[in-house]
Amino acid sequence: GGEAVRGIAEDADGNVWFATDRGLTKYDGARFTNHLIVEGPVHPGVNDVWSLAIDRDGVVWVGTFAGGSTFDGTAFAPVDLPATEPDPSRGATSARLVHAIRQDRRGRMWFATSGGVFIRDGDRLENISVKDGLCGRVVNDVLPARDGSVWFATHHHGVCRLKDGVFVHYGPADGVLGDEVWSLYEDSAGNIWFPTEQHGVYRYDGASFRRFGEDDGLLSR
Length: 221
Description:
Layout (H helix, E strand, L loop, with lengths): L4 E6 L5 E5 L2 E5 L4 E4 L13 E6 L5 E5 L2 E5 L4 E4 L20 E4 L5 E5 L2 E6 L2 E5 L10 E6 L5 E5 L4 E5 L2 E5 L14 E2 L5 E5 L3 E5 L4 E4 L9
Antiparallel strand pairs: 1-2, 2-3, 3-4, 5-6, 6-7, 7-8, 9-10, 10-11, 11-12, 13-14, 14-15, 15-16, 17-18, 18-19, 19-20
C-alpha cells in the first residue's frame, strides 16, 4: 500500500477499497491486498490513484495521475479520456489527472478533470465545460444527486448545479462565499453539503443554504 489515501469505497461484499499513491488496495476484513495498475518500473504517476468509485455492477473505477482505469477483480483496463490543460495552482497536476469519479442513477460515469467533466455512457463520451455553462473548467468533484440534478465543485469558481439542462452558479447573492470547493456530499435526507476554502461548510436543503462555521463548533474554516 501507499502513504497517501485519497479515496475509500466499500463494495457489495463488504470489502473496503483504498485509493493510494502506490496503487489500489483491498481490505477483506482480514488482510490487505495491493494491486498495481501497471506492473514493473514505470512512471510513478501511473499507479498514483487520486479517485475511486465502485459502480452498481461491482466494477472498480480508479482515476490516477496518468488517467483512468477499471478493475474487475483480476485485471485493469484503461479508460480513454482526453488530455486536458493542467492547472498548476491546484498543486499536483497533470494533463490526465482524474480528480473524482461518480456514477449517476442512469449508470453513466462522470469524471471530474481540469478540463471540465467527462461523461461516459457506454461507448459514448461527452465533455461539459465552461462553453456549456459550467462555472469553472477545473472541477474537483462532481455529484449526481438523487433528484436528477448534478452538482459541481470547482477550484476557482465555487459550486454550480445542472438541473433540467440549465446551469445555476451559487455565490454571495445566495449566501455562499468562497471560490475553492473540493468535495460534495448528499446525505440521506437529500441535503447537499460542501466546504469552501476559508468559509466553513454549507448545507443546501433544496431551498436555501445554511453556513456552518466556528461559531457552530466547526474547528476550522
